[in-house]
Records
---
Amino acid sequence: MKRAPCLILAILLAAAPALGAAGGGLAPQPGDILPVIELEAPGDADQLRYLGLQAAEPFRIGDIQSEVVILQVFSMYCPHCQREAPDVNRLFETIEADRRYRGRVKLIGIGAGNSGFEVGVFRQSFTIPFPLFADESLTIHRQLGEVRTPYFFGVRIAEDGAARVFYSRPGGLDGAAPHKFLKILLENAGLQW
Amino acid sequence: MRIIAAAVAALLLLPVLGGSRAPAQPATWQEDMLYDPGPLAPIDSRLKVRVGEPAPDFTLPALHGEPVTLSRYRGQKNVVLSFVPAAWTPVCSDQWPGYNLARALFEARDAIVLGITVDNLPTLHAWTRQMGQLWFPVLSDFWPHGAVAERYGVLRSDGVSERAIFIVDQRGLIRYIEVSDINRRPDLESCIGELEKLAP
């Protein structure tokens, strides 16, 4: 009988790698509160206005004046992100062209491991119209579970500024039309459109 | 018997508990094809050239077209020699796609990138196909193994090269050397800034 606890321990230890593989570096999942992410305000007045920020000061995702924030984690160095960039631009245009979404859904990008210079290269190369933020130190990337790029989060912003995740998936649009991707993404936001 | 049953039940539960938060990854994801060696010693070689010296000339087989000789760019282009350690490894696999995007920045400074690894051509063929159409030559320093990396002093003791950048000006002189931590991507801005200094 004394060997039984050892047997259980041995079985659990043998299974530990499986648990670690599934549980390491986890991205916030639907239902989770998004970690508090601090961003530098964009220098561009139009983008400040887009985000609904009053001043060019550091802000949090929950400070963005919107019911939903779609957050794309990308890297200038990621070939997938480069290939998808035109589609993500069309996603932004789809949001802005639809009165159901315009003003209620905002799109931003976080450049994982990218300097401001590198984010600038990405922005300029693809004429990206929505705000992009550098995360050179990978601080935000770690907060977001060190996800692969590209990765999309859908976050609902409560009136008190709490940001709750309702969509969390690797990959991008993967060939889907932007309006279809948007519909799939928003259907779990719990809002009427 | 009951103890064993409890242990088996606990074992069955583990993947469920862990997997409930693990995002499913598409099978075709490029990163799944990469080999991650884990953290490595940042630098494992000793430079054999210095800024201001003539860049040692070499001829290496290129992935596309004829072999490339460094000295052929003399009087025509500044050259950025980009040594990366190995194909199919995480940092290397996104460094050159970044240079792909920054093509206009290099060309505006009369610069060409020569990408060099110690891998053979078939490996480089398969690997670079994942990157889109690279605009610069990709060269194989496979045989004699790592001879060019060794001549520049960036061949590591395990046979791969350092992650290193050498900027060679149009006179064939080395103007900038950056041997990065092998685990990290070199900063693009500093490379472009150094090229900027070469402007007449």
---
Amino acid sequence: MNYFDKDITSIHQALVNGDITAEALTKQTLDNIKASDSDINAFINLDEDGAIKTAQAIDKNGIDPDNVLSGIPVAIKDNILTNGFTTTAASKMLENFKPIFDATVMKKLNAKQTITVGKTNMDEFAMGGSTENSAFKKTHNPWNLSKVPGGSSGGSAASVAAGQIIFALGSDTGGSIRQPAAYNGIVGLKPTYGRVSRWGLIAFGSSLDQIGPLTRNVLDNALVLNAIAGHDEHDLTSSDKEVPDYTATIKDGVKGLKIALPKEYLAEGIDQSVKDAILKAAETYKQLGATVEEVSLPHTKYGVAAYYILASSEASSNLQRFDGIRYGYRSPEAKNLEEVYVKSRSEGFGDEVKRRIMLGTFSLSAGAFDAYFQKAAKVRTLMLNDFKNVFKDYDLILGPTAPTTAFGIGEDISDPVTMYLNDAMTIPVNLAGLPAMSIPAGFSDGLPIGMQLIGRPFDEATIYKAGYAFEQNTDFHKETPKVGGDK
Amino acid sequence: MADRIDKETVNHVAELAKLSLTEDQLPYFTGQLDSIMDLVDTLSEVDTDGVEPTYSVTDQINVMREDVAQNWGERDALLNNAPEVADGLIRVPTIIDESED
């Protein structure tokens, strides 16, 4: 199966017409993954038997012509619970963990008859921006195997980019869908906080986490969001706002749309090639009838600092549950209860997870709480106000997704601060709970450049409309990497 | 904003977080956390007088539900994930290590 020249709708049509069965499609997808994954390492575990059984059952009942996802294979980030199938969060802590229920997004996808082929690699517990923090393997960027795929949803993004699969799910706490989408030249959306249920997503920063789709084009992305969005009684932060059909207005064009270009997103530290691509995108939007004007988001430069305190504090609390007792890794050396906790956690967690737990524990500790946690929460308010002010006058914010293209494997990992600053333009979006999407907007030295579109809360429809218009008038999404696909 | 992170602080924080660091790891994490604190300390530049903190951005406030127990009927599957099981119960090492007395 060569996914490079297809989309969800064309595969659906082939399934409905009987040109291919779900079983054959699934087998070809698995073959395709096995052929390229020795280079890419996108998957932690493949569920071959489960996928083929699911496909056979779907073929038996017949493809539903009114359900565009019926019989479509999907890859799932390994921090999203899949009932009975190993879910590791790329941590030694959960190496053998088999969930006893499905995440709500999995229930929704299964109800739409998608076929889960496997679980994708990621930074351990979604902490990182290169997928190098996985306890199991390093994923390689299909555009250049010596480069990282970004992260933390690096396996999902690389798999879609390499044409192994037509869509994947990721999660995004500070950019973990959008930055790997940018590095891999694909489309990745982080929905508004509360748009998609977090039930069954292994928690990292609970006030920031969202699950979202990674796809090769904008329309496919909207089709997947249609399937996974909505209120869930198991996630009381999920919104009860009605879910629109995100494809309904996608072709309406951008005429009259007011787009803001924050000067802080084109400041020092952003690669010239990235700046050029974004300014060119701004010109494209103007030609299509939108207005683009420079604005200011004055607190942008404090986002990374506020985020690392807040996300790490939430993580230090969320990861307390890994105590070596009920599930997960237990140190064989533990002789008493205290050692069960301390040795299991010290042996089970990797360095980045330990760093963040310690930073979070410090920020929440007596004496530091007001100066760090409370201070960061107040800066978060100021950042939220920055966005509110801009959205009084503008429909969308345009900027780069990441300051550079994908960096080399091993390049940044020893310096956490440099690594963290890569997230400077994605993090503010999580702090403010806004929806945002990365789409391909150029290339530099053969590596993709991502452009970020940020919308008002629950206005994913406008992001999709603007993304679709850009895609229809550019060719960046038509480029394919050297590795992967059916060639 | 605060004192620099030193080895003593890192050891204290690790203890609170139920982590133990080896002799090699202590200077490594101390150095890294110290440089992260340099970044974090830039927040002291921001005037936040009179600003309310934001802890969450959900539009759902105080969602109530009935407090009803649900039986998942997954006892065996749950126990399969436990590191050590005996007689249908999760087994743990001695809670009070009497050899230390």
---
Amino acid sequence: MADLSVNLFHNMLKNPVMNASGTLGYGVEIEPLWKVETMGAYVTKGLSLMPHQGNPTPRVWEVRWGMINSIGLQNIGVEAFFRDYMPFFEQKNMPVIVNFFGFTEDEYIQCAKNIVPHRLIIGLEMNLSCPNIKAGGISFGKEPEAVRRLIDRVKSSTNIPVIAKLTPEVDNIADIAQAAYEGGADGLTLINTLPGACIDTHERAFKIRGGMSGPSLKPVAIKAIYECRKRVPIPIIGAGGIMDYEDCLSFFMAGATAIQVGTATFVDPFAIPKIIQDLGDFLDKNGWDSVIDLIGAACT
Amino acid sequence: MDDIEAKIITNRNIVKDYFLLRLRLARPLGTVVPGQFVMLKIPGNTVFLRRPFSIYDYKRDVMSIMYKVKGSGTLALSNAVKGDSTMVLGPLGRGFNIYNKPNHIVVAGGIGIAGVHLLIKKIKANAHVFYGCTDEKELLLLNDLKMQDKYISTIDGSYGYKGNVIDLFRTRLKDYNARDTQVYACGPEGMLKGLKHALESHRAPCQVLVEERMACGLGLCFGCVKKTLDEKEPYKRVCKEGPVFNLWQICL
């Protein structure tokens, strides 16, 4: 049996597969179908300092080979998450990555401070695609200097490893990755959804504006991972359009240490366990000893 | 709850844009509560996400859904034929609570009948059904349903009361004592609004099955929500906390 385990921030994960934030609820909802500990780590729904009610409907819309979502970051707040859901992961001894966001720098800082270090929390994933309401609504993740400063401030307020999740809607994502690294980021998640919109031509109105996901995103993610890996020496968690284990192979070969599966779960609720199973079978069949040998295999 | 392979037995056009799809499941579904739904993979490869449909009927390994062609998903489904393979995820969501009351009133409009069909079948001897549709032809949607009392309205007046089903319901409401009555409803948002207004002073308990665009059907994505009066967390998941809600707790 090939070894699927990977090391992330000095934690051994039993496999390199996680869910993408916000696509597996609070972790408990999938249990009737498969156990959440099937994955190497669980990534929380995006959490904020205070509960957030999210957007009115429609929040989801199908586009050709993908979807657009505009959930609006509905969540119960970081405090309620720890009270209501952390015991579930403790009982399973399941590694957790806490995804969090803010609408001001101070909200990010305060939220990070409120996440008490815990043996199972292996990282804080910062959603940098949020609009900065004090800077006219431009997202935090678009300007290298803003990214460097924000991450620097978050790093001084927590001892938990910090992972910067970057938006692909930028001039040069490697510049943003570099800024995140200089700010002290321990890792990167590449990429978040790509902003998009669709129009109801009959109604002459927008149906939805939000983040696009699904298989059409994969080439954008692969390019971002390849370019950032060349620039910064920190581990990359790949995400964007992964539908099956073959997609994963591209992500590892581009330089990702671990991957996240999101929209695929909506198409097939067993996508994640199937990917883990198929990845192991592939390695066995092709004589790879460990998934680690695949990482960056296409980057010479 | 399970994700089950299925094959189409029939996909029959009932009338106009309305279809009845019967599926043979590779394994039986778990216990089905009326009002629950399934996420159905649309046969072929033009539709990406699954689509939610109320369980119209279910016995052993045969499940059926009734649907109306509205968009690209249901259009593609209407082109599916006998023998096509699909996947059925379900049963999902919270269905109707059937309380022991003398009067069970079911109010449905248009394709809303698909959401209450199984409920009416279960409480048939006590079911007082108010059904509103466009014209006489659409009465084919009531199919073989047995019920105690049936009140029909058509918009064009070709059968029964001329007008909408809520106006018809108002004419009969005084016959029912609020304490002895449970109302169940499924239909367009306008109908539910009218129902809420009609019941404002009567205050009979009322459960409504609502519809929303979904991605996962499992409570994972928070894509399908209904706004409620809960101040702490107003948006509730239609697929998880619903699709059946207390009429008096949702914003319409």
---
Amino acid sequence: MRNLPRNFIDSLGPRYESYLSVYLHTASQLGFSEIWISNPTEEEKNLITQPTFTSLIRMYERLDIGLNHESKAHMVSILRHQRRQIPIITVTCLTPELTAWAAQDNRVDILTFPVFQIGKLMSRSIAKLMVKFKKHLEIQLSDLYSLPERQQIPALRQIRSALEIASCKNVPIIFTSGSKKPDQMRSPRELTSLGQMLLMSYIMSLDSLSIIPQQLLQKNLLKISPNYIAPGVYKIPSRIRPSITMEKEEEE
Amino acid sequence: MDERIRYINIRFISPIQLQEKDAWFTVSSEVKRLFGTHGAAEIGLFLSYFDQTAQGGIFRASHKYVYRVRSALCFIHSRHNNPLFLFSENVSGSLKKAKKLLSGSKHLTRYQKLRKMLCISWEQRFDDD
């Protein structure tokens, strides 16, 4: 039996070039069906609502904090303002204190680490906290393959050790390209192969690019929808019963 | 279990036209850098066919190590100081089918669209520099 086609999801990192349409067209041609755009500008927000792009690929906004070495107080204030407005919230953890806080904060969905510190910061205790508070670990693979040759060896080692801990403690892993330029994007099958190379199995790697991010997004979209009341409590939209509509049609 | 052969279609996008030997050296040197001589021998990489007009090559590899070839493609960015973008289109069990897919209109259209998009970004970067 053939496997069902998967919906692959990618995430764009902070972009150096202003051509968002180039990113979107490239991602669509490479085989991605959804894309998360981190910290979009007002111009980009207007662009992604245009039907030419919405018909091409599904786009979602994503909040990335901690990239510019912000203080914890500043991060908390950003979270207070942006909560329930953006479906995906990611924290880039640069220190052990910040990692411990982000792993326990309910507003945060994904934790990501700088490639040369991931082995040090992603400890077993952090992994336990991440499982307890339902956090995802994100590995941005462009950080690995865009590095100069000499730096790839320690980076590969750090990522492997972090993935070993994460898979041992059952932390959900998300693989994204996190590309900053359009030519840093890679097709989903290549990212899967790279994930498979980094210790994991083929199926786990495929899930990290498709099912796991999709489930997180769907859960969060439900949370930010107006029908959400409390965890487990939702407003069901009223529907017209099909029998009534059929009767009306017959009368006409 | 016996080793089986897989044919991987790899498309090359660059501002310059690549020759057959460029395609072979780009992929094989990256595979060797990433997995070493022993790893490369296990993969059994071989360039079976190269279409210069479509800028696509069919690489032969062991079915167990297709993922290694594909992951090596991620690490390739340039060739002779020219930007280079590689992507694998599909994996096939026979050379005949791989050739058919390489010259298929669906894949060619996708390649042309991607090439157009990437050339825009490269031109923009050259202008910035």
